[in-house]
Amino acid sequence: DICKYIDAECFLTCYVDLCKSMWGMLRNYKAIISWHHKDNQNNSENLGCNNNDNIQKQRSDNSATNSPSKTGMESHKMEDSFDEGSYVEQKLQHGLYRIWQDVQAKIRTFILASDLSHFKFDDFLKVLDVTNKLVYIGEDFCGSKSEALRDSVKKQSTSFFQREHTARLEELHMFLENEAWQIVPLKANFTVYQLLEYRFLKVRDNSDRSITSISS
């Protein structure tokens, strides 16, 4: 509800700041996933490289002491750590879509809370541009089509252009009402084709008549 009290003059600035904050959150989330992915790769490589050596050491230690070796215990710890890291990365990957849905919901609430139909044309284009960039970010982030964002932009665009169209019609109506119309004296044989701007209509009309006469 607090979004409704944002002044039109501050809307664009607040909207850009909000989008930057959301983008920063998404970037940090991606960075966390990337860190876990690289860490799991390193653990997997280390586990694969040391696996054979650990098995040989474990066998030699067991034959010498007849007790579980320390190397074997460390190997199991590495495997458990790798499994835990893979689980965390998997959970983070599954959370991509949910995070983006939350971001969409907040952005959509902010956009629809204000009446953008009274915006200047250039300012409204800036809102559309920022929103389109967010849509591209969503596609890159989790492959989402961002239906919520597109729907909010569609509603605001429809409202904006309806008001713009109505305002222009009213302006045109005012000009026509205040126009000083005067009767122009014309000859009895005057036709619109005698005007330079409409002579092309005479050529088209003659060609249409020729086609009609040929077909008949």
TrEMBL record:
Gene Ontology molecular function, alphabetical: SNARE binding
Ranges of Polar residues composition bias in the record: 46-72
A single GO cellular-component term on record: cytosol
Signal sequence extent: none
GO BP annotation list: endocytic recycling; retrograde transport, endosome to Golgi
Region (Disordered): 46-77
Listed PANTHER family: SYNDETIN
Name of the featured protein: Syndetin-like
Species annotation: Hirondellea gigas
Top-level taxonomy: Eukaryota, Metazoa, Ecdysozoa, Arthropoda, Crustacea
